[in-house]
Amino acid sequence: MTNLFMPNEIKEPLIYRIRAGLIMMGSATKAELSQRLGISFPTISKCIAQMERDGEIRYTGDDDSSGGRRAKRYAYDPEYMLGLAVFIEKDETHYSIFNCIGEIKAQGSEPSVIRENAQLLAELIEGLIEQYPRLRSIAIGVPGAVNNGKIIFIPPYHNFLHYDLKGEFESRFQIPVVVENDMNASVLGYASNFEIENESLVYLYFGQNGPGSGIMINGQVVRGNTFFSGEISFVPQYDTQSFSDALYMEKRESRIVLAGDKQLDAVARLIAAFAAIINPRAVVFCDDEVDEARLASIADLSSTYIPREHLPLLVSSDWRQDYLTGLQQLALHLMITDG
Fold it and tell me: pLDDT of 195-251, one tens digit each?
């Protein structure tokens, strides 16, 4: 029997919109989808028929009758597609597998691959794909600047410099891949976790690889003209010292601890600069790098450089969770649009 609506006859953006609509709504009838998405009922019907044949959606029952034929209700199968989020740090490579409604299916950590080469990361991902054959998108977070999937700045990990991680891995695995700077993913994840929309935020992390920031303006992550936005280690301070110099002082190899007056003042100056340039709602710190007393000290010091009423809120958050959430959001978007 000939299919009434062959796959190549469906315009993909319609499928994306219906897929996203069903995931957000939980379940829906064809009429509800038509009204919600502004797509004609006949087109919705054809798309739903194909998605049901493909196993992407499932029929969940009939609605109560209002006098006519009872409407059929459909739900998206959350296990139809899975996503993978991977972040690479100095001491570990962490991964998370989740379904298309964000439920975590598996998590784990492996030794860091960043001191070696991308082949070790590829082998890790290859093993996960074999274990979870429904993987349909991959989001990878790296501690460096990224231009459309190519790593353009990642000191001191020269094996990854100028590596087209997105292009190489998409070619190898035939799965859509997004590669993102760690702090860009973190500010995206923080906004998602706290359901913050159309706000301006800065996320600071002093971390294992030197200071960095993720910047969001009016709900959009800022990557900059050359995708170098957020590399705050280069911000000049104290005549001959950069922000990184001021933080590390004499312990270049150690993890930064905000303890000295000079370090707190350097952060306060940076906060004042952000307040004067983009006037964010909040600046977010990693919760294992600050406490309430340090945040209060930074706020007081910042107010010596800029009027207090223009300073952002200073808050702390779980950086690892925000980072993973941001990568998950990126992978989910890929899953819906390219899965």
Answer: 888 899 999 998 777 899 999 999 999 999 999 999 999 999 988 899 988 887 555
Rounded CA gap, 126 and 86, in Å?
13
DSSP for 256-283? P---SHHHHHHHHHHHHHHHHHT--SEE
**Model's pTM, two decimal places?**
0.87
* Helix (H), strand (E) at residue 244: helix 243-248
Number of other residues whose CB lies within 10 A of the CB of residue 144: 22
The residues with which 314 forms a beta bridge, in sequence order, are 283
Confirm if 82 and 125 have CB atoms less than 8 A apart: no
Q: Which of 67, 68, 61 is nearest to 28 (CA)?
A: 61
Q: Tell me 309's DSSP state.
A: G
Burial tier of 142 (Cβ tally within 10 Å: 0-12, 13-18, 19+): buried
Neighbours of 263 (CB within 10 A): 19
**Cα–Cα dist 219/254, whole Å:** 34
Token look-up 């952060």 returns 267
φ, ψ dihedrals at 243, nearest 5°: -60, -40
| First-to-last C-alpha distance (Å) of the chain | 27
- List Cβ neighbours of 63 (8 Å cut-off, separation of 6 or more): 29, 70, 71, 72, 73
The kind and range of the H/E element at 99 are: strand 92-99
Residue 127 forms beta bridges with which residues? none
Q: Where are the alpha helices (DSSP H) in 132-206?
A: 165-173, 182-193
Q: Taking a C-beta distance cutoff of 8 angstroms, is the pair 329, 189 a contact?
A: yes
**Phi-psi group of 218: left, alpha or beta (phi > 0 → left; psi -120 to 50 → alpha; rest → beta):** left
Cα separation, 201 vs 206, in Å, equals: 17
Q: Residue type at 84? A: L
